[in-house]
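Could you join me in thinking about how sequence relates to backbone shape in a protein? To get us started, please write out a protein record for me. Would you write everything just below, so we can both look at the same thing?
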Amino acid sequence: MTSRRQFLQTGLAGGLLLGVAGCTRPSADGRRGTVIAAIVPVMLAGALGQENQVASIARTVAAVETAIAGLALPAQKEIGELFDLLAFAPTRALAAGLWTDWPQATPGEIGAFLDSWRHSRFDLLKSGYAALHDLIFGAWYAAPENWPAIGYPGPPKVR
């Protein structure tokens, strides 16, 4: 159970990081796609296959963008703040432990960041991981071109 002290620390740290990232608005210049493109191959490591990975990653990034655009405005704002945090170098280094920019980050570094957020003691970071996970996996599994790879025949045909 989270103590009052942890709750306050998490709130203050999260508010500070989001405030700094929000003031800079790095995702407004298209950096969100760069972040997603770096995370997709790590999250979908076994599912992407070896053939045509670049096109598959690009389709997944576009599908994530479409999914975000379909969210309610408050949810879009929160997702924007998450990507602002991850795109801005100082907050990325502090919150994610990634000192290199996304295109230069290794799969091991990105995997370590994702694991640290997934298993964090702070609910804010766990929520950030869950948002990334749900957006990326939802976009991947919703695409009909990926269904054969997972053995899904598609929705039942209505006669």
